[in-house]
Amino acid sequence: MNAHKANNTKEKVRQLQRKLYLAAKLNSKRRFHALYDKVYRKDILMEAWKRVRANGGSGGIDQVSIADIEKNGVDKFLEDIQQELMEGKYHPKPVRRTYIPKGNVLNVK
């Protein structure tokens, strides 16, 4: 992907984010019911992948790592997710919760 196309993709995602943000700010009671078709857009999925990749995201409960996805092909991975989303068959795995010890926290009442 060339630099111009990458920047254009990033800008399209930002435009969508801005539209949603402004609509929510205009009406605090606004609810978004029709975003599903936006989620499976190829540019949105690719931007999400880039962000996960950039922050070194770790495998979820399914233990699939970034390296696993890259080894098997990022495009194939995203196409599979896109297809599942479009068909209404995508069901995310449960979140793996990790508790972080807080040390000696005073219990003030």
Automatic annotation (TrEMBL):
Top-rank lineage group of the source organism: Bacteria
Protein name as catalogued: Reverse transcriptase (RNA-dependent DNA polymerase)
Species for this entry: Lutispora thermophila DSM 19022
Lineage per the UniProt record: Bacteria, Bacillati, Bacillota, Clostridia, Lutisporales
